[in-house]
Amino acid sequence: MIIGIIFLILVLVALIAATRSGKSQKEYDSRGFDSDHIHRNGTKYDDYGYDFHGYNKLGYNRQGRNVDGGYDRLYDTERGIKDGFYSLREYPVGLTTHARERLAERLEITDYDRANIQAFSAYRFGKSKRQIKQSSAYLLEESEKREENKVALLYGGYIYIFSRENVLITLYRNEKIPL
Question: Among 168, 169, 174, 70, which Cα is nearest to 119's?
């Protein structure tokens, strides 16, 4: 009987100590984040590098979009392949002489480095036919059909025509596709 009472007192003391320490079992959502947006691994980011809201340290989600909805082809590796491009590691973005002439003529970019930056920006942030309204996508498809094995991207009011090897072939003003 005395042993039973001592055991009961020890259990009560343990329960009181546990409630006073304030430590309770943290609850995690299905992705492993608690109510303070900390992952169960102890960091702000999950095991794949994405925070509670789904963005990585650079501000892009798994689909390559930033908080404002802007698209970045570099952070969506599968999309670039689905758009028809080859790997950027094997085929870096380049320009033909004709593309440099069109950049100088239409955008007044004559500097070699600025032309490379513009081509890379068009590759990186340009919208493909899969990313615009279907009613407008056929106009980009027409551009691609005129140039065999090419990919057309819409960027900054112009249509950029790239080869599958990520080389800018030409660009022309977009007058048909609403932005």
Answer: 168
Compute the distance between CA of residue 171 and CA of residue 157 in angstroms, rounded to an integer: 10
Are 80 and 71 within 8 A, CB to CB?
A: no
Question: What pLDDT score does 117 carry?
Answer: 93
SS3 16: helix
pLDDT of residue 170: 92
Report the mean per-residue pLDDT for the chain. Answer: 82
Q: 13: helix, coil or strand?
A: helix
Q: Which residue has the tokens 């480095």?
A: 113
Q: Which domains does the chain have, with CATH numbers?
A: 80-179 (3.30.2310)
Which amino acid is residue 171, in one-letter code?
A: L
H/E stretch holding 14 reads helix 2-21
Q: Which amino acid is at 4?
A: G
Give the integer Cα–Cα distance in Å for 106 and 89.
Answer: 29
Q: What is the DSSP annotation of 21-57?
A: H--------TTSB-TTS-BTTSSSS-TTS--TTS--T
Please state, as a whole number, how many other Cβ atoms lie within 10 Å of the Cβ of residue 80: 21
d(CA 173, CA 120): 18
* Model confidence at 116: pLDDT above 90: yes
Beta bridge partners of 33: 39
Verdict on whether the full-model pTM lies above 0.70: no
